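ok so for the tutorial part 2 we go from a plain amino acid sequence to predicted C-alpha cells. step 1 is just haveing the sequence, like this:
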Amino acid sequence: MANYRENTKAQLPHKSQLYSSPFDNHPIYSNMGGWVCDTTTMALKYKLDKNDWAKKADGTPSNLTGTDGDVMVKVPAFYIRVTRQSNGKPKFEIDDTIPDLYGSNGKAGFFVHPAFRMPNGQVRPYFLWGAYKGYEKDGKLRSISGVLPTVSKTKASFQDLARQGRNTNFGLTAVFERWAIMLMFYTEFGTLDSQEACGRGIVDMTWEEGLTTNPDIRKTGQSNSLGDRSGYVDGGNGNGKSSVRYRGIEDLWGNIWEFLAGIMVTDKGWYYTNEHSKMDNISQMSLYAKDLSQKVTNGYLTDMEYPVGLEWTFIPKSTGGSTSTYYCDYFVTHDSGEENLVLAGAAWNNASAAGLACWHCADVASHVYSSLGARLSYAQQ
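step 2 — the prediction. this is what the C-alpha cells look like for a chain of 381 residues:
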C-alpha cells in the first residue's frame, strides 16, 4: 500500500525534478484525469493517456483542438473529514472510499465533500472542469488546446457562453469545485506554497509581453505532454513563463484571472452557493455573515475563516504573510459599499502574488479586462 505521507513531487525542470506521486495509486486521485467530452452533452467520449495527452488511453492519436469535443478533467467525488488540531486549525483528510449515490457508505466521521452534493441531496459521481482556460468558439465557451484564452467579457457574458445551446449543468468554474481541488492539492503536496510545489505558472511576463509582444506563450495546451501529471514543461521559457499543471488542469494560477461562480462579497459578508440556478442571484445565496465594512487589508494570506459546518471552505480571513509563509498567495480585498465578484489565480504579470489561494475581490459585475477570463465547468444538477 502506498505511503501517502510521502508527498507528491511535481515535474520541476528548474530543479531537475521528475514527477512522482504515491497518490497515483489512491482510488480517488487515480480517477482524476483528462477526457475528451461531447461539446453539447458532456458525455465522456474517450479517456486521454495519463502520461501524454497526444494519445488516447488506448494509444491511438487524440484530437485536442475541439473537433472531437471539449478537453475536460474529471474530478471524482470523495469523502473528507475535518478535525481540529491543538492549535485550533483544521486537519483535512481524504478517504479512499468511493461515495455511493446517497453518500451513505462513508466511514465514521467522514462526509462527502459538498462540491459533489446535488440540490436533491444525492451525490454527483464527478464534476468536469475545462482542462484549459476558456475560449469562445462558434458562440460557446470551449476548452480546447492551442488557442489564446478569451478575455474582456463580463462574468454574465461568459456564463451565457458556457450555457449557449446547452443546459444549466454547464457554467463557469464554481467556488465549491475550486475548494475541492484546493483541498486535494494541499493534501497531496503537504504544503500551502503552491508555486514552490508545482511551478510558478505564467506569472513573470511584463504586461506588454503578455498582451502584445509574445502572447503565444499563453496559448493553451503547452503542458499536454504531462498528461494527468503535475508540474510544468519548459519549452524554453523557464519557470515563471510556463503553464503549471495539476493532474491535468492547466493554469490553476497564472496566465489570466478567471471568474469564480457561486461566490460574492459585500460589507455583510460572503455569499455562496453550489446550485447553478442560484449562482447569478446574490439574494438566493447563503450568507456567511461577517462585518466586512472594516476590510481585511490587501496582502499575503495568513489564515482562512473556519466557520462551524463550513470548515472545508477557504474563505480569506487575515493577511500579513509573505511569499514564503502561511498560504504564500496574495489577497485583494473587496471595496466597501460594493457588491463584488471573486477572481481567482492571478495573471501573467502577477509574479509571486499568484497561487492556488490567490483571490481578487474588488470588481463589480460590469467589469471587463484584457487579463480576465473564465473556465468551463459541468456539474450534474
